[in-house]
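Entry 14. Ran structure prediction on the chain below.
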Amino acid sequence: MTNKFIPLDCGDDVILLEKDTYKVSKFRELVIRQFIKKWRQEICTDKTRINNNSVGSLFGSISAEGESIPFSEIKLNAVKDCQVLKIDGKGWQKGKLEIRIMYIS
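Output, C-alpha cells:
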C-alpha cells in the first residue's frame, strides 16, 4: 500500500463516494458552492457582519496580550474514502479523496 497523492486534474474523471458518483469538475463546483453558502449563512450574519465578507477580514490577524499576529494562509482539509474512475481506462481505483481549501492573502 502506498501513500501516493495523485491530483485529479481531469474534470471528466469520476469520483464514487459512499453512494453517489460525480464528475470531478462537478464535484469541485459543488464543494465551492457549499463552502460559500456555509460561509455566508454561518459567519456573515447580521450579528457578525464582516467588512468585505472575506476570510481574510475575519482571520487576517489575531492579538495575544496586545501582540498582533498576522495570518497569511488559512487551510481547511478533509479526507474521505472513495473510488476513482480515471479516463485513462484503468477501471475503478480505491483510495482517499483529499479536499483542500486554502485562503492566501
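The helical segments are 24-43, 55-59. Will compare against last week's run tomorrow.
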